[in-house]
Amino acid sequence: MDKLELSIIIVDYNSSLFTIDLINNLKEKLIDIRYEIVVVDNNPEGKSNKEIERIFQNLRNLKVLKAKKNLGFGAGNNLGAKEARGEYLLLLNPDTKIVDNSIQKMLDFLAKHPEIGALSPLLYQKNEISFQRHFYGDFQSLAFIINRWKVNIPKKTANNFFYVNMVSGAALMIRRSLFEKIDGFDENFFMYIEDDDLCHRISNLGLKNAVLLSTKIIHFEGQSSTSLEKKKFYYKSQDYYWQKHYGSVMTFVMKALRAPYIWWQNFTSK
After folding, report:
1. Distance (Å, whole) CA 179 – CA 190
2. CA-to-CA distance for 220 and 128, rounded, in angstroms?
3. How far apart are CA 132 and CA 218, in angstroms?
C-alpha cells in the first residue's frame, strides 16, 4: 500500500452542510495527494454523521467518528488524530474552502523545512480579498491585553513565508509525529486559545511556526464572535493559558488589565 501523505481532520459541531461542501471541495482539489479525511462529529445528539456517511458512502478515504460528548475543539482534533494514518495532519474547520493547490504547496514546504512545526496558509474572509483577523500573531502578553484589537497584515518576503509565534487552528498543518510528540492539544482548553498553547509548546522545542504566502484558503466565518457565552469560554481558556505559561502573579496582573474591558462588554450588552 502506498504511504499516506495527509490526514485532514474536520471537527464538526452542527456544521454538516459546511462539512459536506468541504468534503466535495477536497475531492475536487486534492487529485494528486494520497490523503484521507477524518470527520469528528462533536454533537452526540446530532445526526450529521449519518448524513455525511449516507452522502459519501462510496468514499473509501473517509472516516466519520462519533464523539460520546461534545469534546470541544482541541479534544475533538485529538480524537481524529488518533485515527489518522497520514504523515502530515491538516486541521481544517468545516467552514473553509480550498481554491487552488495550496495544500500541496504546504506539504511541499514542510517537507523542505524541518525547522517548521505548525504551518498556516493565508486565511481569507469570504470576499476572498480581506484577510481573516488574527489567524496568526504573537503569543499573548500584557501588551496584547491592552492593545487587543491590533490586526497584523502579512508582508511579502523574499522567502515566500514568514515566521510567527502562533497560527490559528482553523487551517493548521503539522507533522503527525510532532503532534504525537507534544501529545496534541491540551484538553483543558474546551474552546479558544488551544492553538496558542499548541504553538507555544512547539516553540519550546526550538521549532518555528510559519505562514506560507503562496497559499490561499477561504474561511467563511472567520469574524470574531460577540456572543457573551463564547466570550466566557474565551476568558476561561485565557486564564488557564496564562496560569500555565506565565504563573499566578502574571495571571493576576493580566486579569486586572482585562477587567475594565469585561465590565464594559457586560454593560453594553444589557
Report:
1. 18
2. 9
3. 9
Find where cell 506565565 sits.
246
- Residue pair 53/24 in contact (Cβ under 8 Å)? The answer is no
What contacts 98, CB < 8 A, 6 or more positions away? 25, 26, 29, 30, 217
Q: Which pLDDT belongs to residue 261?
A: 81
Residue in 105, 123, 127, 121 with CA at minimum distance from that of residue 29: 105
In three-state form (DSSP H/G/I as H, E/B as E, the rest C), the secondary structure along 53-72 is HHHCCCCCCEEEEECCCCCH
Beta strands in 176-207, from DSSP E residues, in sequence order: none
Write down the mean pLDDT value for the chain.
89
Percent of the chain whose pLDDT exceeds 90: 65
Are 87 and 5 contacting, i.e. CB atoms less than 8 angstroms apart? yes
Q: Is the separation of the CB atoms in 101 and 29 below 8 Å? A: yes
Helix-then-strand count for the chain, H and E: 8, 11
Which residues are bridge partners to 120 per DSSP? Answer: 211
Mean pLDDT of 207-225: 83
Which of 95, 99, 169 lies closest to 134 in space, CA to CA? 169
Look up residue 187 and give its DSSP letter: T
